Amino acid sequence: MTTRPLGLASVAILRAIHAGRRYGVEIIEETGLGGGTVYKLLHRLEKRGAVKGTWESAEVAERDRRPRRRYYRLSSAGERALSEALQAMRALTQGVGPLAVGEAPVGEER
Amino acid sequence: MDRVCRWLLALAGLIGGRAFRRDRLPEWEGELWALRAAGARARLRFAATGVLHAAWLRREEGADMGGWGRDVSLAVRRLGRAPGYAAVTIIVLGLGIGANTALFNALDAALRGSAPYPDPDRLVMVDLTATDRGGQVPDTLPWSWPTFSLARERIPSLEPFAAYSARDLTLTRPGDPDRVEVELVSAGYFDLLGVRPRLGRVFTASEEPPADVAVAVLGHALWTSRFGSDPNVLGRSVTVEGRTLEVVGVLPPGFRGLTGRGELWVPIASAPTLLNPRLLEAASLHWFYAIGRLRPDVPKAPGPAELTAAGAAIDDALGGGGHGVSPVPFLRARVNPITRLSLVAVLVGGLLLLGIACANVASLVLARASVRRTDVAVRAALGASRTRIARELILESLILSLAGGSLGVGLAIAAERGVARWAAYALEMSGTRNLQYLDPAMMGVNGVALAMALTLALGTGLVSALLPLRAVVRPELAGALRGGPRGIVARTGRAGEAGRALLVSAQIALTLVLVAGAGLMAASLSRLSAVEVGFTRDDVLALHFERRAPYSDEERMSFERELIGRLRGLPGVERVAIAPCPPLEGPCEMAALRQLDDTPAGEGRPTPIVTHAVSDDYFATVGVPVLSGRTFDARERSDQPPLAVVNETAARTLFGGNAVGHRIAVTHAPTESATAEIVGIVGDVRDGRIEGAPTPAVYFSRRQTTQWYGTLFLAVRGDPWTLLGAVRREASALDPDLPLFEVTTLGDLRSAATARTRVVLGLLLAFASLGLLLSAVGIYGVVSYEVLRRRREMGLRLALGAPASGLVRSVVGRPALLGGLGAVAGVAGAFALTGQVQGLLFGVEPWDPRVMGGATMLLVGIAVAAAWIPARRALRVDPVETLQGD
Fold first, then answer.
1. Contact A35 B34 (CB under 8 A)
2. Cβ of B742: how many Cβ atoms within 10 Å?
3. Which residue of B15, B85, B242, B778 is surrounded by the most CB atoms within 10 Å?
4. Chain B positions with Cβ closer than 8 Å to A
């Protein structure tokens, strides 16, 4: 498995999932990224084991009268990768002052 | 909108492959649902993203998949690097495929004569024939009610056997007054066509004549527009021609009757009250057509004994006339041969263009293959399999042709309405007997047409890839590698070269056929335009009117005189006249000569003659020259013996020129009994098709005969259409219920008479121009390739002192030979094909030497020009530069 460093957009997606956004459209809204980018990166993140997609149970979808959703959650490797990436970013921006992205590089917790 | 989204996702599934459909597509569907509140545009964009994602995923996976997916993506990328080549090819194919797709349904209908009724091959049109009328013996007539009843009793093998006729009538209630197309039918009509009412019932046997019933069945469109699809419409009423009819049924959507125009149906028994009181009693009033369905136990047609018996019974009832009954298969009767021929001609033109396009793509593929030869050779040397290399080429060509096909389908759909409008304008939509033949609404692009477009695209792709394939996959390895980059052009497989040259010949041959076809249509049009239609004024407004019972002849005459007087007072109007029908629309009153002076005319074989009852100023109004004697004026009285004016053809054929002073009598004319004295001769006016020869015609004064219908002619200064409103106002001031319809101008009639020829010509001309362009490009390509290939050799020869002209000749020689071969094949093909469309031509033979010669010259000229431009480069070859190149 490749261990290329995560791109900014990938980090944003991991962070969005970490913050509780669970499926594609929610992640798109949260990150402000394009649909194409989000799905492309989700696919890659899943392949490298950082994200795990699971289908919601059929009963829930049936009850809400809608198609089943695929929910994404972070694997332990994903959690690790996210915190590493955030740490690296903090290190990068240390001392830059007001320009720094600081504690929350992308997407404020709501 | 959501349907589009679903389609897009289905497309994504198609692109993404099975795994994508299984694992990913449900996710996209779920997401789309989550976006349900986000607006149509957002959803559409999301769905489109799905398609792109599927394609991306496919490529992503393809990297470790090998095989087709990767080849496709490689082929697309390769084409993307040569966008000009790809664009030209796609556009050319798109035009060819588009033309064929757009017209496919029209042609389908034309060739198969299909009909939207169950077992249409069991339907039979039944004609009444008679030998006592003019024209070719026996003549086909519509039926009158007494003759139809006699025949129906005697032909039991047709069950049901029904009558139908169509009239444009005035509907005044509910809603605004308007003209609606009313079919008058007898009881079995709907049964026979297998149509069941959606609501209520259709007509019963108790509503046959002589019963006088006031009922009507609504067409679906009328039910929707006039009654708001009221489910309780039964028992409500409609008012037609001032008569109140009870609605007893509603027909299913889509049914427009045999005429294809019906909006409302009434029993034929209402004809006397709606149209003319004598319509059902008079055996000599022939006004409707008949159709029957073969009883299940009757194999193919009614037996001759039944038909003879029916004919004899009609003769008995009418006191002779040589009547007969003749059955014609319904599907054959629907066909209009000229329309079919026009469509075939256009379609063949489209196919020829597609053939040219196909040859062009093949030679482009071949050229590219030659360029890629080193690359292919290297890969072959490194162990790439031949199938793999072949697959790439085929894929490239297939992708191009599918893209061209999509463009073509897009064009066809975009042009759908235009095509229908064009067809309705230029082609006759009816066959004989008032039967609908082509329905413009059916000319859309449907599944069958799409399947055909796909087949054409795939076929084109495969053919154009397979033609050059052999030359490419057997590269002379050593040669290709040794030559290095220059080797690309230094030596190609002989097969490839010959193939390309042959393709160019084929293009020239196909183009020549197209150019010759267009040339013949152009020659026809110029002859047609030169035909003297007989009237000189175009700025004449013509309006049809009908004024039925209960007016007496005297009332009608004074009404018409007053109408003419009022209209003449309108500003801009120069002259006003009334005649039965406008010219060029078909002779509306046919009769036969009965007597010439004191001798009975045409014993055994009467001469047909067209009769017109015209008002005083008619000839001056439409611009018909008076050749001799006088025309009608206010001196004519209805109580005096009738006077007649004949046309030039009648004067010549009946009296050898000077007809004035002679007397004639005609049968089936308004002045049935009397002998009329000829007082004048006027020029010939074409009554019927412009292609036909002028026929004998006789004119009577409207002061001495009357008709309950007629056409108003207003000769005006300026644009006739600006007067229409004023004319309608004046007419309704005189009679508020007077319908004025079928408004046109003589100029429009004149141009409509050549519409078919012009439209077929226009399309063939467009195809031929494209074909010429493609051929020129092909020739240009072959010659420039030859120049490029022999650069070094020519540089050497120039350096050694060879004359430049000889070099040019040697470059152009072979293409010229091929062009010549193509031209010969093209002339042969043109002879073979144009002979088939003789019916579309006018005044020109299919093998007209000037047209054929002209087409050949044009093509040779263009070929020479296309060869000359690159050939000149041979002269500019700099020997030093080429020799240094090594």
1. no
2. 15
3. B778
4. 26-27, 29-31, 33-35, 45-46, 49, 52-53, 56-57, 60
Tens digits of per-residue pLDDT, B741-794?
778 899 888 888 888 788 888 888 888 888 888 888 777 777 777 777 777 777
Q: Using an 8 Å CB-CB cutoff, list chain A residues near B26.
A: 55, 67-68, 70
Q: How far is A74 from chain B (nearest CA, A)?
A: 18
Q: Do B49 and A40 touch (CB under 8 A)?
A: no
Measured between beta carbons, which residues in chain B are less than 8 angstroms from residue A36? 49, 52-53, 56
Residue B124 is predicted with a pLDDT of: 92
What digits encode the pLDDT tens for the residues B494-550? 556 667 778 888 888 999 998 998 899 888 888 888 888 888 888 899 998 877 656
List, in sequence order, the alpha helices (H) in B569-670.
618-622, 648-655
Per-position DSSP letters for B129-188, written without gaps between them:
EESSSSSSSSEEE-B-HHHHHHHHHH-TTEEEEEEEEEEEEEEEESSS-EEEEEEEE-TT
Residue contact B53–A36, C-beta within 8 A: yes
Chain B residue numbers touching A55 (CB-CB < 8 A): 26
The answer for residues whose C-beta is within 8 angstroms of residue B825's C-beta and 6 or more apart is: B505, B506, B509
Q: Of B46-55, B356-365, B408-417, give the lowest mean pLDDT range.
A: B356-365
Residue B237 has phi, psi (to 5 degrees) of: -130, 155
Whether residues B57 and A25 touch (CB distance < 8 A) is answered with: no
Q: Do A23 and B31 touch (CB under 8 A)?
A: yes
Of B27, B49, B60, the CB nearest to A36: B49
**Which pLDDT value is given to residue B883?**
64
What would you report as the CA-atom Rg of chain A, rounded to the nearest whole angstrom?
A: 15
Contacts of residue B703, defined as CB under 8 A and 6 or more positions apart, other chains included, come to B557, B615, B616, B632, B634, B636, B637, B638
Q: Distance from CA of residue B358 to its chain's centroid?
A: 26
CB contact under 8 A, A70 and B35: no
Contact B744/B544 with Cβ under 8 angstroms?
no
pTM of the full structure: 0.67
Please report the domains of chain A, with CATH numbers, ordered by start residue. Answer: 8-93 (1.10.10.10)
ipTM above threshold 0.85: no
Q: Do A69 and B27 touch (CB under 8 A)?
A: yes
* pLDDT tens-digit map of B140-168: 778 989 999 999 999 999 989 999 998 88
Distance from C-alpha of B839 to C-alpha of B345, rounded to nearest angstrom: 11
From residue B735, give the alpha-carbon distance in Å to each of B178, B575, B685, B742: 16, 21, 31, 18
Q: What stretch of H or E contains B291?
A: strand B289-294
Q: Quick check: B737 and B243 in contact, CB under 8 A?
A: no
- Å between A109 CA and nearest CA of chain B: 22
Q: Which residue has the tokens 């002045």?
A: B671
Residues of A in contact with B57 (CB under 8 A): 43
pLDDT at B196: 92
Chain centre to alpha carbon of residue B99 = 13
Q: Choosing among A23, A26, A37, A69, which should be mutated to test the B contact, i.e. which has the most B CBs within 10 A?
A: A69
Q: Give the helix/strand (H/E) hosting B743.
A: strand B740-745
B-chain residue closest to A54, CA distance: B27
Closest CA–CA distance from residue A54 to any residue of chain B (Å): 10
The nearest CA of chain A is from the CA of B25 a distance in Å of 11
Q: Considering CB atoms only, which of B30, B35, B60 is closest to A68?
A: B30
Outline where DSSP puts E strands in B176-285: 178-185, 199-200, 215-218, 237-240, 243-250, 264-267
State CA B473 to chain mean position distance.
46
